[in-house]
Amino acid sequence: METTQQPIEAELPVTLETSPDRPHWGALAGVAVWIGSIALLVITQGLAISGYALFSGREFADNAAFAEFARTDPTAIIVQVASTLPAHLLTLGLCVLVITAFFQKPFWSTIGWTSGGVKVWHYVAMMLIFFIAALTLLNLFPPGEDDLDRIIKSSTTALYLVGFLAVFSAPFVEEVVYRGVMYPGFLKKMGMPLAITLTTVLFALVHVPQYYENPVKIALLTLLSFMLTALRAVTGSLLPAFILHTLINGTQIALLLAEPLVRRFAETGAQ
Prior knowledge:
- The longest helix is centred in the C-terminal third of the chain and has 32 residues, at 239-270.
- It is globular, with a radius of gyration of 23 Å.
- It has helices at 27-55, 63-72, 74-82, 84-99, 108-111, 120-140, 147-154, 156-168, 170-190, 192-206, 208-211, 215-235, 239-270.
- Helix 1 (27-55) runs antiparallel to helix 9.
- By secondary structure, the protein is mostly helical.
């Protein structure tokens, strides 16, 4: 008597799809990307300024003299600011390798590039909250001059370079680093409250060298980081945080560029 053998189906391993809140990387990868982004910026700017000093034939008695040159020479400042762009591109490349698992997974769906249900009025409301808080704190605690102020005042070229980076480069790269890689990695390991807290703190911490002379600006950066990270957590998508970050940076740069024109107009009207 013949027996019919049923085909044996191979048991395939069950794999969970990668999603914005369920990444294939963990907290250690997030920390590694954070450290890598800082290292790339420091190395790129250091090489750029050293190259400019060598090309211009400058000699320095010690490291302090070189640091003063990098901080005060207008051309060295421009070179330093301009070198931020290649540092951003290298950082973005590092993030792409982590997010795509060396090009094995899709980039946009892994970080979450959807509206997240956020409407225009939501962005307007969040911007109002931030700028009302900023005006209140800056009036209560008037800030002094910090490194970024000195960079902006060093030349018109430096001002426009800072504006370009603040609007067209920094929001995307920073969001991919902090809310695209770090936050999901932390979320996977420690849950939402700690992930939001740690991402917020590390974002503010990396800006301390620019604003250490103005604690009120560090406080505002901490508020901004919290808003962006909370928005990423609530929507499950990176796009809303990127849009809000770009809108806030863009508004600040627009006001900064408009300030001389407004002052000139006021002086003309007073005559």
